Structures are given as structure tokens and as C-alpha cells.
Amino acid sequence: MSEFLEADVVKKMEEVKILYRKLDELSITILRTLQSIMFERKYLDANLQEGYINMAKARYLMRGQKVGIHQVNSTNLTATFKNDATLKLRSVNVENQLVDDQVSVLAPDEVDCKNEDSKTSKETICSNYNDPLKWFGVLVPESLRTCQTRFKQSTCTALKIISLHNKLRELHKEYKILKLQKASLCSHDLICNNTESECNNSVKS
């Protein structure tokens, strides 16, 4: 009987070791993600600061023209959205199966029409697209071009920061789940103490 108890304890200790290893790896990943967020925020602040400074320089050089939201040509602006939908068909009985077959045959044609419409809309958007720098003439100050580049980089960096925050949120959820698993396995203090001592000895060695 004691042999079975010892085998059960050893098995739980191995499971706890695996959990400790996963928690350590996950903690390192969380720290690296936080470091990436801090780095991207500094990069975002630097780009925004440089963009506003170059915008001020451009306003000073272009004294006869204004640089602001009032120069945006809102007549050609178009808003687009993407809707991902899946068509699921299920026949309830034999009589409705014919109707389902007809729908499944007609669905690809409708999808083709939608694809053609989306292609034509993309072509019209591309044809109507104009570089905003051309609104201020052909010869614009270099500071205005730098301003545009910096703000574009800021947009990409902001999206990257959002994705990193989403990743960090998922890592925190996974970390909480592992902590709960560890608490359920470490019902006996002896198992956790032995596992922690072995892990500390392995780290020291």
C-alpha cells in the first residue's frame, strides 16, 4: 500500500515540475512582451514628436498655406468594411434536401458576383486615391514629407502595441489557469516543498 502511495506522490511531483517549468517559461514570455510594449511606446512617442515638429517646420515654411484637417478633401473619402460570413447548410428531412441543394448551387455564383463587385470597388478606390502631399502642390517642403512618414510609422506602431496588449491579456489568462492547476495538484504541502527544493537545487547546480 505504501508503494502505491509513494508512486502517486512521485507522479504528482513530476506533474508539479512540469507546471513549474511552464510557469517559468510563461513568466519569461510575459516579461519579454512587456519589454516589447515599452519599446514600441517609446518608438511611438518619438515618431509623434518628430512628426509634430516637422509639421511645425512645414507650417513655418509654407506661410501662405495652412497645414491642418481643413485641407483634407472629404469628397473623395470612402469608408470600407469587411464582413466575414460562412454559409452553413443542413438538411432537416428529405423534402428540404432539394432546397438545400439548390441553395448550395446558387451560393458560388453569388460569391463570384460579390468578388467582382469588391474588385471593381477596390479599383475605383485606387483610381480615386491621391497622395495628400499633392494637395499642397508639387514642390512641398521636405519637412512635410518627413511628417507624413512619421505619422504613418506611428499608425503601424499603434496597431502593433494593440496586438501586443492582446497577447499579454491572453498570457495572463493562461498564467492564471496554470496557477489554478498548480493549486489543485499541490493539495499536500509536502509535494510542493519537495518539488521546490528540487527545483532550487537544480538551479544552483
Automatic annotation (TrEMBL):
GO annotation, biological process: vacuolar proton-transporting V-type ATPase complex assembly
An example Gene Ontology molecular-function term: unfolded protein binding
Official protein name in the record: Vacuolar ATPase assembly protein VMA22
Protein source organism: Argiope bruennichi
